[in-house]
Amino acid sequence: MASVSVTRRFDLTDVKWAKLEPLLPSGKKPGRPPKWSNRQLVDGIRWRVRVGSPWRDVPECYGPWQTVYGLFRRWQRAGVWQQIVAGLQARADAAGLITWDVSVDSTISRAHQHAAGARRDGNLQREPPGGARRSRPTMRWAAPAVG
């Protein structure tokens, strides 16, 4: 396993990367090899999510912000992040590191009055929010008469 030097304090160590790497999709396409490794891009995504900064502020050591954001959105649309979380939870559960206790309380949460509705012109939005996919239009076929 090739080791990448940890450039930042919160970057993935070799041990953590060894646990995460098998859960990532293999992107073997013919042609030129990628300039940025998945490890650098994932570290860039982790940095952005941890810090909460705009995508344009991702440090250059993780690659161009457009590349980091593109990988994040591609994997979000494809459901890769959910698969990674499910895989990590399954491994931790098998090792006995997770207790699945559920606690319910009766605390009341209220939303602000402006949080009640959706976008006024949702059809003008360029991309669907989050990992949501646009639904395909359904075609209604006339069912043959049963007789």
TrEMBL record:
Task: Cite the Insertion element IS402-like domain residue spans from the record.
Answer: 12-84
- Note down the stretches annotated as region Disordered: 112-147
Q: Name one Pfam family in it.
A: DUF4096
InterPro entries (UniProt xref): IS402-like_dom, Transposase_6_like
Instruction: Write the protein's name.
Output: Putative transposase of IS4/5 family
- According to its UniProt entry, this protein's organism is Micromonospora rhizosphaerae
